[in-house]
């Protein structure tokens, strides 16, 4: 199958470091880098794609890259599928066979609201929880304290910025000061985008080139 044929009808599931993790059909997964046009085919899934979440640990060009997905078969049962792309296998049993032990952190209802969305994102080697209120007008960030396994409120992102969407979330060091300490939302406002500033505590609509001039407009 050619690259163009593989991309037609494919769905973006996750992204990191310029690489997209995509699915096509019921069992096909592959990586695609839109900047280099490189693609890496993954082994077919053992079952039909039914993940509620899927991600990869490091860049697919790294020897330690692992793809893992979570599927909720029932309200009380969750399956974990792991794919080591360099060992060329995908399985839903490897965690148990290799003796891995993990603990499920109880979902704090205060932060994970069933009405408004919450998002997990890695930033500066920390796991952050972005909690959005109605229409993104109320935004809070928490960091997981792994020593106590509790969520701690974050007041500032420093030089980092976050990009949040239903498909994927990522963080980056801002290329200039006017983009620091902000959360960019996958929502359009006419020809503008929406972002939340932790410095001002406001959601703002701005043109993509807002950093080059006085284009921003506070909502």
UniProtKB/TrEMBL annotation:
Q: Where in this chain does the record put each KIB1-4 beta-propeller domain?
A: 10-77, 118-194
Q: Which domain of life is it from?
A: Eukaryota
**Entry protein name:** KIB1-4 beta-propeller domain-containing protein
The root-end lineage is: Eukaryota, Viridiplantae, Streptophyta, Embryophyta, Tracheophyta
